[in-house]
């Protein structure tokens, strides 16, 4: 198996400024412009550059043209791809410098925007200066939690001063193990390729498993692909590790894990609002709760400038561990000396791992957040006398099911790369904005942003306007919304919100599958239905020589997992290790199989968000999402007819080609696979669709899309090495058309 070769730039320093996903997207746009215009010059390039991420809605076309004319006074001079990349970086740097000076004071809305949640921020390449302090802290974390791992212990501890971390990342095992440390049980270790030397195929599988699993626990990985991990790109690796570690550190900052947190809220607080708080906001509230009790007069609003003098830490440790907190810490006037004393006290609580005195005084936001989270883990100072724990202790089976579905929808939305990060679906969608962002992703151009109001929204009728537009668009997409009104969303009606999100996901996957069908000979405009997905799966298993069959997506025999393992083996024979598969008779065997199925599907390239319990209990919605995602992955790689209509197969072949197909091939793809299939694959990983997709028929979306109708899941993260198909299309995630902000009060 030959190694993957992506878009290669002759200048190594320039190559290192972009991920392969970004390079392929930029290359595709550049080639398209050159094909349409014959030449790329300062006359036609500004129109392309104004749409690019970091420049969209920030720099007008005229200003870009003036900037380019400084380097290219001859407007007819042809610009090559590498020159285009350099000018793009130069423009980004100019914009960053301009924004930096505008927000230097740190106050106002700009300051709040820059202190956004780490989970909301996608891994980007605008700034590549590695933070050695953060790197050292992450290495210490890895050495601590994985030092005794049977497979990794021969490679640990890692020396933080060199490149050992990035070299060790290249085979994918360490990142998979780190994800399991953050959220135990996410990856079935039987699915990880573990041996001393992995071939390119096995390495790619591990990284695909890693990225799909990272998305499934809440990481945002829009701009990173498997090849970036294979190459060990430092800024991308550290960005991903940072998110994984923080998810681990903040895992207990919710009422389900730590019900004592109700102590932070008064009785009048709406419990749904409390549940919707992000882990960071909950940590800040916890910190301020103790600071107030200790007599600290200020309010800490961030983990950077507000803690730089170390005074807040001195008060916090005095409140939580008075036995280790001498008065001299508060009396000290020198911030450096106070920071040193704070860490000496924290070390007695085993809380020093993540930062140095310099990190405190310089206001390193990531490391300070990790430090406070570690203090919370070791001594949260909350009483054991709980006032309102009943809400977290008892739940009906329906409540548990809704909670699991809420998680799946939340992870799916966060994987789209929209501007908002969802912490609790039922609370965060109530102003309508997030739903409009999702609609704009799955059906580009459907949202009238002039009529939308962007958060924070103080006036209730503005929220209702947003939600009414959501319902209006849903009806235009032929969703079944008979009992849903905008006010139901504003009021947080869980059942109806689940029904709406269900249909959004189902619409998206059917739309993508139908786009594949549109390239099929003899498709005759027929739309893919749930029955087609069912028939395809049964046919695939049968033709592989297996005997399993599912009668429907709620067939109870599916609970043992055997059918899905046979389906996965049918689409990729080498991906299932039958030596570790159980018969699925006892409950424990069913769980082992279900866990293995999810990891194998992600390893293959399917971006799925279900849990093992969804397979064991045969959750009809999640079963369909799993089947559809496997189907999509398979269809992208096998252009021969695969879809059956009423048990009769119809032709299903892709005849699309691409100008840059010779440059972009996935290591897991068959040599005959078309470039457009690759592009579709990557579009599904973020569930974004380009204009061609948005024109695809709705595929009977509304016919049975009631709250109990089958849902098609975003199937394939596909070959993350495949071209991005307008992934991150032109603008930053969640960027709006030019009229976006005009009326967004």
Describe this structure in words.
This protein is mostly helical. The protein folds into five domains: 12-99, Recoverin, domain 1, CATH 1.10.238; 132-250, Calponin-like domain (Actin-binding Protein, T-fimbrin, domain 1, Orthogonal Bundle); 259-378, Actin-binding Protein, T-fimbrin, domain 1 (Orthogonal Bundle); 397-518, Calponin-like domain (Actin-binding Protein, T-fimbrin, domain 1), CATH 1.10.418.10; 530-636, Calponin-like domain (Actin-binding Protein, T-fimbrin, domain 1, Orthogonal Bundle). It is built from 33 helices and two strands. Strands 1-2 form a two-stranded antiparallel ribbon. A hairpin with a 2-residue loop joins strand 1 (643-645) and strand 2. Helix 28 packs parallel to helix 29 (587-604). Residues 1-5, 100-128, 387-394 and 640-745 have low confidence and may be disordered.
Key features of this structure:
745 residues, Recoverin, domain 1, Actin-binding Protein, T-fimbrin, domain 1, 5 domains, two-stranded antiparallel ribbon, 33 helices, globular, cytoskeleton
């Amino acid at each position: 198996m030959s190694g993957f070769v992506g878009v290669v730039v002759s200048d190594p320093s320039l190559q290192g400024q972009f991920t392969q996903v970004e390079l392929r997207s930029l290359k595709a746009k550049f080639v398209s412009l050159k094909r349409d215009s014959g030449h790329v010059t300062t006359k036609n390039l500004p129109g392309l550059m104004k749409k690019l991420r970091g420049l969209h809605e920030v720099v007008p076309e005229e200003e870009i043209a003036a900037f380019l004319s400084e380097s290219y006074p001859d407007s007819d001079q042809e610009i090559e791809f590498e020159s285009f990349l350099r000018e793009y970086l130069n423009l980004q740097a100019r914009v960053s410098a301009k924004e930096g000076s505008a927000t230097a004071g740190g106050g106002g809305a700009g300051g709040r925007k820059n202190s956004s949640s780490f989970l909301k921020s996608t891994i980007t390449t605008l700034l590549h200066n590695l933070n050695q302090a953060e790197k050292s802290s992450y290495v210490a974390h890895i050495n601590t939690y994985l030092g005794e791992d049977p497979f990794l212990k021969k490679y640990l501890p890692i020396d933080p001063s060199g490149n050992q971390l990035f070299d060790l990342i290249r085979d994918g095992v360490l990142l998979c193990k780190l994800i399991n440390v953050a959220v135990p049980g996410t990856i079935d270790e039987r699915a990880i390729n573990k041996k001393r030397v992995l071939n390119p195929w096995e390495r790619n599988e591990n990284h695909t498993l890693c990225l799909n699993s990272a998305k499934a626990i809440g990481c945002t990985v829009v701009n990173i692909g498997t090849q970036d991990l294979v190459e060990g790109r430092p800024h991308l690796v550290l960005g991903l590790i940072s998110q994984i570690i923080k998810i681990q550190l903040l895992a207990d900052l919710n009422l389900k894990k730590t019900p004592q947190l109700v102590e932070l809220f008064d009785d009048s607080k709406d419990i749904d609002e409390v549940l919707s708080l992000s882990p960071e906001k909950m940590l800040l509230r916890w910190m301020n709760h103790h600071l107030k009790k200790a007599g600290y007069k200020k309010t800490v609003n961030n983990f950077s400038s507000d803690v730089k003098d170390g005074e807040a830490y001195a008060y916090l440790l005095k409140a939580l561990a008075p036995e280790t907190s001498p008065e001299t810490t508060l009396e000290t006037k020198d911030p450096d000396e106070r920071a040193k004393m704070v860490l000496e006290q924290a070390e007695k609580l085993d809380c020093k791992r993540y930062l140095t005195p310099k990190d405190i005084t310089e206001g390193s936001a990531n490391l300070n957040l990790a430090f406070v989270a570690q203090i919370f883990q070791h001594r949260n100072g909350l009483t054991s006398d709980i006032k309102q724990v009943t809400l977290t202790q008892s739940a009906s089976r329906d409540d548990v099911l809704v909670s699991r579905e809420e998680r799946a929808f939340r992870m799916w939305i966060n994987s789209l790369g929209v501007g908002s990060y969802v912490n609790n679906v039922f609370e965060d969608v109530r102003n309508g904005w997030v739903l409009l962002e999702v609609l704009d992703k799955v059906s580009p151009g459907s949202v009238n942003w002039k009529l939308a109001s962007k958060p924070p929204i103080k006036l209730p009728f503005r929220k209702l306007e947003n939600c009414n537009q959501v319902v209006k668009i849903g009806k235009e997409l032929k969703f079944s919304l008979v009992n849903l009104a905008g006010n139901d969303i504003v009021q947080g009606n869980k059942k109806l919100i689940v029904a709406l999100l269900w249909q959004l996901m189902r619409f998206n996957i059917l739309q993508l599958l139908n786009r594949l069908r549109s390239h099929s000979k003899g498709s005759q405009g027929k739309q893919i239905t749930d029955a087609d997905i069912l028939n395809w799966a049964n046919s695939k298993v049968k033709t592989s020589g297996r005997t399993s069959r599912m009668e429907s997506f709620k067939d109870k025999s599916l609970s043992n997992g055997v059918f899905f393992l046979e389906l996965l083996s049918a689409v990729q024979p080498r991906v299932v290790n039958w030596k570790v598969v159980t018969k699925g008779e006892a409950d424990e065997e069913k769980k082992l199989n279900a866990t293995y199925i999810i990891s194998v599907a992600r390893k293959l390239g399917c971006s799925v968000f279900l849990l093992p319990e969804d397979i064991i209990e045969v959750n009809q919605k999640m079963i369909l999402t799993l089947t559809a995602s496997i189907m999509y992955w398979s269809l992208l790689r096998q252009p021969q007819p695969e879809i059956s209509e009423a048990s009769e197969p119809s032709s299903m072949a892709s005849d699309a080609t691409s100008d840059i197909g010779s440059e972009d091939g996935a290591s897991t793809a068959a040599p005959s696979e078309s470039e457009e299939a690759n592009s579709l694959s990557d579009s599904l990983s973020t569930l974004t669709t380009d204009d061609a997709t948005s024109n695809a028929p709705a595929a009977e979306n509304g016919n049975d899309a009631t709250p109990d109708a089958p849902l098609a899941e975003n199937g394939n993260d596909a070959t993350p090495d495949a071209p991005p198909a307008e992934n991150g299309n032109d603008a930053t995630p969640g960027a709006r058309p030019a009229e976006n902000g005009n009326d967004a009060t």
